[in-house]
Design a protein that fits this description.
- The structure is a single chain.
- The longest helix has 26 residues.
- The chain starts with a strand and ends with a helix.
- It has 423 residues and is an alpha/beta fold.
- It has 3 domains: 174 residues, Molybdenum Cofactor Biosythetic Enzyme, Chain A; 74 residues, 2-Layer Sandwich (Alpha-Beta Plaits); 158 residues, Maf protein, CATH 3.90.950.20.
- The strands form 4 sheets. It has a 6-stranded mixed β-sheet, with helices on both faces. Strands 14-13-15-16-17 form a 5-stranded mixed β-sheet, sandwiched between helices. Strands 10-11-9-12 form a 4-stranded antiparallel β-sheet.
- It has 15 helices and 17 strands.
Length: 423
């Protein structure tokens, strides 16, 4: 019988619940599960306590086919996950020679790490399937709970990702095949729009929402001036039907559309620049290097990103970006004239095809009646011209800088699209 398999994630660790560590693992895991047709139903974070972990396991197994846990697998006394899982599944720890050999080889150049606590890592539950953790010492454990599975992984993000991709996801897929589980397809299509308030967008799409089938869901996901429209089906519709409704949605928002895929703006910009064989540089004031960080965040950015000057102080604008002191005094540092000069200079000194410059008042101090907190000027220098625009991006410092980066990238995407259309 066909069904959409459900998974739940349990993240284990006090550090998650006191805010010391942010859980980035779950979102990444959810994407990978969706790719193989498994719906993530719930994410639960629990303390490093036996009672809390067992209660979470009982709840998860009452709803889910697959339970994934992360954290609590280290060699210290506060790492109790392995012991609690042994109790839960009615088994005990035994030495595993393969795990021992792996750990000894892993730390062969660091003999100080091989101590009596490290030795506890090669003790594993007797009734679990043990999978290799290629980059760490904590073994990966898979337990069977009737026709349900539990996989336990480390909480360290890079270890968890390699474990999921190399071991856990293939194991789950193989388990489905062996047990003749037929998965329904989970489908997501995403548009990214800007330049329209969320409420106005909902009014624009009101008739569309009334017409589409209820089993195809539309979600509005606003952030930093961008609204993602996600169309989803959890097994009820096929790709052809979803695509038909996606194309209808796309036609309705064409005036506001910036992307028809769910990729970060900096990736879209980078891919477009690489396709064109062109480059970009940045000159930042209020964004403090955040725009540069986004543009070189992903692998392959050296093909299009040349560099940046973070000119937070006026003296740096004057000495490195050739902004005349007289211009700053006459126009103010947050002005069209200043950002144009910044953009033109960074483009000239780096030899980039395009450049972006930012200058603004991120707050909480520094605003005036004429230029309140949240005022940001952004300039884009191109092979043909330089453009500048003023934005008012809120009152909160992080909000202002994040939104400024998004506005900068959206502006560049529009310029690249326009230039391409003119060719």
């Amino acid at each position: 019988m066909e069904k959409t398999m459900r998974a739940e994630i349990i993240t284990i660790g006090d550090e998650l619940l006191i805010g010391q560590v942010v859980d980035t693992n779950s979102a990444w895991m959810a994407e990978r599960l969706n790719e193989i047709g498994i719906e993530l139903y719930q994410i639960t974070s629990v303390h490093d306590t036996r009672e809390h972990i067992i209660a979470a396991l009982n709840e998860a197994f009452s709803r889910a086919d697959i339970v994934l846990t992360t954290g609590g697998l280290g060699p210290t006394n506060d790492d109790i996950t392995k012991h609690v899982l042994c109790e839960y599944f009615g088994t005990h720890l035994v030495e595993d020679e393969q795990v021992r050999t792996h750990i000894q080889q892993l730390y062969s150049a660091r003999p100080d790490v091989l101590n009596r606590l490290t030795a506890t890592q090669w003790l594993v539950p007797q009734d679990a399937v043990i999978l290799e953790n290629r980059v760490g010492s904590a073994p990966l454990m898979v337990f069977q709970h009737g026709r349900q599975l539990l996989a336990s992984m480390p909480g360290v993000p890079y270890e968890m990702k390699i474990a999921m991709e190399e071991q856990i996801l293939p194991y789950i897929c193989n388990y489905e095949l062996q047990n003749s589980i037929i998965q329904k397809q989970i489908i997501h299509h995403t548009l990214q729009v800007t330049g329209i308030p969320e409420s106005a967008l909902a009014i624009l799409l009101e008739e569309y929402e009334n017409q589409k089938p209820q089993y195809i869901r539309l979600a509005y996901l606003p952030k930093d001036g961008i609204i993602r429209l996600r169309l989803s089906s959890y097994g009820e519709a096929d790709e052809q039907e979803c695509n038909q409704w996606f194309q209808r949605l796309k036609a309705l928002v064409t005036d506001y559309l910036i992307a028809d895929k769910d990729e970060p703006l900096e990736v879209l910009v980078g891919n477009r620049l690489k396709q064109l064989g062109q480059t970009i540089a940045t000159a930042e004031s209020c964004t403090g290097g955040k725009l540069a960080s986004l543009l070189n965040k992903h692998a392959g950015s050296s093909a299009f990103y040349l560099g940046s000057v973070v000119s937070y102080a006026n003296s740096v604008k004057t000495n490195m970006l050739n902004v005349p002191e007289e211009m700053i005094e006459r126009c103010g540092v947050v002005s069209e004239e200043v950002v144009r000069q910044m953009a033109d200079t960074i483009r000239a000194i780096t030899g980039a095809d395009y450049s972006i410059a930012t200058s603004g008042i991120a707050g909480p101090d520094g605003g005036t009646n004429d230029k309140p907190v949240g005022t940001v000027w952004i300039a884009w220098a191109t092979p043909n011209d330089t453009f500048a625009e003023c934005f008012h991006l809120g009152k909160l410092r992080e909000q202002v800088t994040d939104r400024a980066c998004m506005k900068a990238l959206v502006g560049l995407l529009k310029i690249l699209k326009q230039n391409n259309n003119q060719k």
